[in-house]
Amino acid sequence: MSITTFQPTKIKKYARLFIMSQDNCILRELNLKDKNIHFTDNEAGEWNYFDYRGRGDKRHKCLIYTANLTYSVSRCSDCGFRDCVEHWGWTSTEMRLTGTSLWDVRLALRKQRFHCKNCGNTFTAASSDFEKNCQISRNTKVIVKQNLNEDMMTEKTVAKHLHISPNSVQRIEYDAIYEGGQYKYQYNFKQQLPEAISMDEFRSANDQFSFIWCDATSIKQFEVLPNRLTKTIKQYFLGFSLANRKRVKHVVMDMNAQYASFIKFLFPNAEIIIDGFHIAQRIGNALDSVRKNIQKRIDDKQNNRAYKIMKSQWKIFHMMYEDLEKTKPYYMRGINEYLTQEQAIGIRLSTKYPEFGQVWTAYQEIMKAMHNKDLSGFEDIITHYTIMGNDMDSAISTFAKNYKGIQNSITSNYSNGRVEGMNHKIKQLKRNSCGYKNMAHLLWRIRQIF
Ligand SMILES: [Zn+2]
């Protein structure tokens, strides 16, 4: 630019543009949005610098930016009069940010103070990036919640990762369930109950059991209760209107006599469905317990082929007979022979333990009836079952007691799959943070992670 074309106004304009774009760059880098924050450089012309913060063990290097927060105010916030507000000095605070760098990023912010000539009121400039009386930026709070609930990180890890104290993380996360230090979480009784409800329980804080229900077709709707006492569950569901409770047509659960006792009372139109997985599990356990009993009774364990097969190849006894490999032999560990799966079963059944053969047959028949949705076949097995004097008897008698629920399970497509999946994730959450002591906190986090 030659001297003849020197235009002071234009230079001023370019300088302003330069400063603004500089501000915008830094704002973006620091995850801030407020255009009223104007960054300042030091004598060396640098926009940030390193300094140390904290005492003792906690002393660490921080990346510090300096900025002024100011804007023009046309009206007093108190009396509302126009053109009576004057600048009234500055007040300094240090804000905590989450920038794109791994450093503990701080913002040394000078906030403009204002004074009203009319009413004498003084107030400080506010920023949309920070809450009043809080040094942690709004954006950091969002990231805290994301880290905790989407990534299932522990409170401690999040605190370390974002350079804030674990107490701050707790305050941010559990802000919603406390009001003035008092626990205030309210169940949502306005929601419409789904047609099919899935019920289960899980181990929660302090090794207690807690109750969980969810919509059997999605996990969008669910609730967790601190314990599984009949009183608690009844009280909770009675919070819903009768018309709402009448909407529930199916209740899926495991073979739990406690729940069965109040389902009809709470949900007059509902039928109980026993979860198919639990039926299979119960009868599988019976098969295993009989097998283990026989194993114990075998004296010459070293040379007994049946024992070796029962011990090492127990999985094939749980398979459906149709699914067994009948032609291709393979090397079986434990017994060290080439056998087909059918032959392995045959060795077991042809030996002198007919009891196991009977139990295995009963197991096969029940599984087959369930698989084929064969109601009359199932009824046949239950009614014509002969007492064998082992664990299978109690399994069958449990089935007889829950007969209606099992019948519904065979004919319907509902299962406890969703709620079991949720339980799995809850277990993960607990494992991540090595258990929970505070029940309210655990339940709150469960509500957040789904
Ligand atoms: Zn005023």
Structure description:
This protein is α+β, with helices and mostly antiparallel strands and 450 residues long. It folds into 4 domains: 3-135, no CATH class; 142-183, no CATH class; 196-275 and 415-449, Ribonuclease H-like superfamily/Ribonuclease H (Nucleotidyltransferase, domain 5, 2-Layer Sandwich), CATH 3.30.420; 277-411, no CATH class. It is 43% helix and 19% strand. The protein has 17 helices and 15 strands. It has helices at residues 8-29, 138-149, 155-162, 166-174, 230-237, 242-246, 257-266, 276-297, 305-312, 314-318, 341-350, 354-371, 375-383, 391-401, 403-411, 417-432, 439-449, and strands spanning 37-40, 48-53, 60-69, 85-97, 104-116, 122-124, 178-179, 182-183, 196-203, 209-215, 222-225, 250-253, 271-274, 330-332, 337-339. The strands form 4 sheets. Strands 1, 2, 3, 4, 5 and 6 form a 6-stranded mixed β-sheet that branches. A 5-stranded mixed β-sheet has the order 11-10-9-12-13, sandwiched between helices. A hairpin with a 6-residue loop joins β2 (48-53) and β3. α8 (276-297) runs antiparallel to α14 (391-401), α9 (305-312) packs across α11 and α12 (354-371) runs antiparallel to α13. The longest helix is centred in the N-terminal third of the chain and has 22 residues, at 8-29. 26% of the residues are buried. The mean pLDDT is 86. Bound molecules: zinc ion (ZN). Zinc ion is lined by residues 76, 78-79, 81, 116, 118-119, 121.
